[in-house]
Write a structure and sequence with these properties.
This protein is of the alpha/beta class and 171 residues long. It contains five helices and five strands; from the N terminus they run βββαβαβααα.
């Protein structure tokens, strides 16, 4: 049995899922996958408040993401991580900057905490879950719920959290 961390790397929201992989007991070669922990960490801009610079706000949000990863890794001690890369198609400078910061935080935290990591594209994640690289967010969520038999009441209630947790699990 091994624990694997699935991560949907994002700056506004980070999806983190811990999956237990155990050999199937039904004679079929492969693994059963069971989600043992799933969460989405949301960060919000506070730079609109007087006296807070955008750079200070970004640094605080990076710290929140790093601390969440550290807490999950130290609690569950996964054997490795699979991380969905943020897509590179953002049009604006702020969005590209946010994707870069999220990737940097995740990369640094996993490296410092000695977690072997594999990176996958959003298309790979959608294909793994739905069989199609252009699968919708809803299709990924439905597939992940079926794939992990995720019906124990731990599925996130907020739409934003469901999206990020599903992507992390699909990774």
């Amino acid at each position: 049995m091994a624990l694997v961390l699935g991560i949907d790397a994002g700056f506004q929201a980070l999806g983190i899922v811990v999956v237990r992989l155990q050999p199937r007991g039904d004679g079929v070669v492969g693994y059963e996958r069971l989600v043992v922990h799933g969460e989405a960490v949301k960060t919000e801009r506070t730079s609109k408040k007087r006296g807070i610079r955008v750079a200070d706000d970004d640094a605080e949000r990076c710290q929140q993401l790093a601390q969440a990863l550290k807490r999950v890794i130290e609690t569950w001690k996964p054997a490795g991580a699979i991380v969905e890369l943020p897509h590179g198609g953002a049009q604006g400078a702020r969005a590209n900057r946010a994707m870069g910061m999220a990737t940097g935080v995740v990369t640094s935290a996993l490296s410092i905490l000695d977690v072997p990591t594999e990176w996958v594209t959003p298309g790979d994640v959608k294909k793994a879950a739905t069989g199609r690289k252009d699968g919708s967010k809803e299709a990924v969520q439905e597939a992940v719920q079926r794939m992990f038999r995720w019906h124990d009441g731990t599925w996130p209630k907020q739409a934003w959290a469901r999206e990020h947790v599903a992507d992390a699990a699909a990774a």
